[in-house]
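Lab notes, practical 5.
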Amino acid sequence: MVTGLDRYPLGYEMDLSETAGMLGLAYGIGTSNSFTKALQRCVLFGVSQPVPGGLAVRRKVPPVAGRHLARMPDSLRAMHYQWQTREFTLTELQRGRTLAEVMMSAGDDPESVERHLLAVGVSPAAAAEAISLTWSPTV
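Output from the prediction step:
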């Protein structure tokens, strides 16, 4: 969805059956199929919202709500906390900054750079710091 929104920021049409198939989910008419249930969970968790003629999708996901964290196993909660923490290693920051510098010099915007840093395993805190050290907005 994010790739489509990068290409078409005002929205785009998505083939639901094809998308469901790419995710390994079943799709059909009605609300009892696994893909529709997954989309309903996106609404439940605040990642998307129904709008006339479609679905509005967040480009940035908020932190997991406490009520949802409370239902997670201890090991997953610990992983989530570690992923979100403000502490990171110098090596991770250097890696994030190097990647951010290359991407921004190629013309990528900070939001896109952040998404890519997260996708390659840089923690949110290190990604944010790397971008703030690299990006200097023109005034």
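Observations recorded by the TA: Residues 73 and 86 are 22 Å apart (CA to CA). The helical segments are 2-7, 16-22, 34-44, 66-69, 74-84, 90-105, 110-119, 124-134.
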